[in-house]
Each structure stands twice: as C-alpha cells, then as structure tokens.
C-alpha cells in the first residue's frame, strides 16, 4: 500500500510516493511553468500546468512496484486560482499566482466595502492583493472575462477536478478567497453579492482530506494510478507541511525556513476578535478537524542571507562553506548590530508592505562575519516577535519549534534562533514536508490513519537534531530585543513614511 502527495508550488510542482511510515519511495519534480503577459503580469497556462502535474504523478507512480496507490492528496499555494466553465470545466481565464500584484486597484475597492475587524472575524484575514476576490474582480473588470456560468477554483481544486471530474475545495483554500466564513464554514453570500458576484461561482467546501472520488477511468492507466485510487484536496501547503512533522498540538510551532519564512501554529476553533486582529497574524481552518491555524511570516528571511551573501562576494558568489567559516570566527554572542529584515516589507505582527530593511549599530570594528551574524539575529528577532504574539492568543507557552527547509543546515542560524527565542528547536529530517503532509491528509481521509495524532505517530524519521538555547545568550538577546529591537521599530517606520 502506498500514498501519494502532490504539491503545486510557486517554484516547483512535485509528486511523492510514500509508504505507511512516511518514507519516500519516489520523488518527482518539475519547474512550475510561469509566464508573463506583455504588461508584465505573471500567470500560469492551465493546460501547461496540468500537463506538468500529470508528468510528475506518472513519474512517481512508476515506483509503486505493483502495490496499490490508495490515495492522492493535493496541496497547493494558497491564493492562486482561475475561472473555469461550470458545465464543461474548460478554463475561462489563465491562472493568477498569489504573488502577482495586478490587483492593487481592486484591493482598495475591497477595503472600502467592509469593516476590517468584521471581515477579519468572519475570514481570519485582512484584505490583501493575493486573495481570490481581488483576482476575480480584476478578471471581470480588467481582464474581459464573462463571469456567467463560471466557477472559481484554486490550484489544488483545479488539479483535483482534472483527476476526478468533481469541482470542490477545502476549508483552508476556500478561506484564502476572502469570501469564505471560517466561523460558520460556509460561503459568505451577502458579502459575495456586495461585489455583484453570484454565490454559485464557488464550489462546495469540504474538510481537508475528504475523498472527492476516484481517478477518472480514462486517465488512470496513463498516470500509473488505478480506477480505485481516491483523490482528496489536502489544502494549504504550509498547513499540510506542519502536519507531516508532527506539529499537531498548540504548544508546538512549525517553522518553514526558505527564501521567506513561515510559522504555523494551532489553536482551538473560537470566535476571532480584536485580540487576534491585533497580532497581525492570519488565521484559517486547519487540516486537523475542529482546529484553527495561525500563521505569520518573514518575507525576506533566507532572502536576507542571500542578499548579503551577494553583496559580500567578489566576482564569484561566496560559498556557504565560506559563510560558515566566517561565522565560526565571530564571537558566539550578540553581535551588537540590529538588522531589520524588511527587504520585501514586513509581515506580522506589524504588516507593512512599505517597510524597509536596516542595519543599526555598525562600527568600524565590525567585520563581514559580524554582519552575517546580525542578519541571522535580525530574522530571529522577527521570529520572536511573532512567537510572543502567538503566545498571547494561544493562551499557553510556545517553547518548541520544529524546523524544516534549507536554512536548517546553517548550524549558526539554528543556535541563534534557539538563543533568541529560548525555545528548543527540533530540526526535522523530513525532506518534502508539504508532499508528505498532503499524502497523510488524504490517508486520514480514506481511513489509512485514524486521525492526525495516529498519522504523526506513524511517521518514522532518522535521528532528529535538537538545538537547545544557551541561557546566558538568551538573557542577553532578550534584553536587546526588549530594549533595542522592538522600541526602535516605531521611529524606523516613521522614517520610512517620510521618504515615501
């Protein structure tokens, strides 16, 4: 028996075949085929993207060695989507990625249409250019798309439709349209109609992992699947990933370290109000039943490291080995420099797309290694600001992080994170957390696992690396965070505004 996960990601589209214990049998990957219009708008061609997904599924399925692939779980980037004909399923628009900024005009219209706190209480979100609503309005008003008899499908929904012929979504992806009520688990019909849209445009929303049906008979053999293989929408990619590493209790936070860094935690479902709004975090329905997730991000985490790496290099890009060597020669204590990692604006707890990065406290005695260390400290301070806000709304201490991603290979960074936050950090050995999370979510849906806890207990990893905080460093970092990093936020942001 095998389980398959599919991850429709920003950079790559992947499929993974796993056994019951989460061991990867086969991983397949292709670059996500991203295009640009003459105006500079980014998009995906639906047929080209589907063919890419089909190719990785077929490649991964070839390693099943005759064993049954019982289910396919599909995770995807959260806010990307397209309009299709509700009767034929034919694409009526191209797919708009989450990062395309063409909808800035529409988002201003949306912000003026409702009270921000009221909308947050219903959706768990603030209005943002990424969301499905702004994309639909742009397609109607600027893209020339006739919305009659259309359905809006996220990326994961579209792939599930192509596999099964059924149009549906899951709660976690539905919410990223800014048109779904997570408090009632239904489409917000009055809000939808306020924009001249029809509630019929939106597919049935189901819990993550709900079986949608089996693979269409005419395509099963060509994909290496069977007519009995069940397909499920696993949902939001980061939330699926948190499940794969066992971050399924409120006191444990998932930390995905990449170009951007994303933190995902869990809390019981409850009404959202001013306290949750004030955190700057986003909220949604978890893939674990009857739970919400909270999410915060650092837009330029690994990107800050790569930026400085490029600036410190000569004709050849500095190697990671050289960076590690430089860090090893710095004092293993606070650098004395504050770095604000806002190369791409700031996220929670103070969302501001106009925020700018900054170094504060440089002296002539500082070396390149000190600046590298400061960047690692700055991203860790930002993580700490998110963690503290999440603790307030979770109502309990957050003392354990489970980290995945390329950044975990930098031992200096992991030590600094532990020292700044005072948290124990587990470095997971799961290579493809989103793929495994998608496979597990579908596996729960078909009954391979009883629930998320059983699934997490079934996953076998190699020895995990545990990073513990150093008490003296933690005390020093805590003082700098409280007396330096946070108090300087306000004047720094005021300075940004003076130069806009």
Automatic annotation (TrEMBL):
Domain annotation Carbohydrate kinase FGGY C-terminal: ranges: 256-444
InterPro entries: ATPase_NBD, Carb_kinase_FGGY, Carb_kinase_FGGY_CS, FGGY_C, FGGY_Carb_Kinase, FGGY_N
Gene3D superfamilies attached to this UniProt entry: 3.30.420.40
GO-annotated molecular function: kinase activity; phosphotransferase activity, alcohol group as acceptor
Ranges of residues in domain Carbohydrate kinase FGGY N-terminal: 4-243
Keywords from the named record: Kinase, Transferase
GO biological process: carbohydrate metabolic process
Keyword set includes Phosphoprotein: no
Protein family per UniProt: Belongs to the FGGY kinase family.
PANTHER family listed in its UniProt record: SUGAR KINASE, XYLULOSE KINASE
Name under which the protein is recorded: Carbohydrate kinase
Organism: Paenibacillus albiflavus
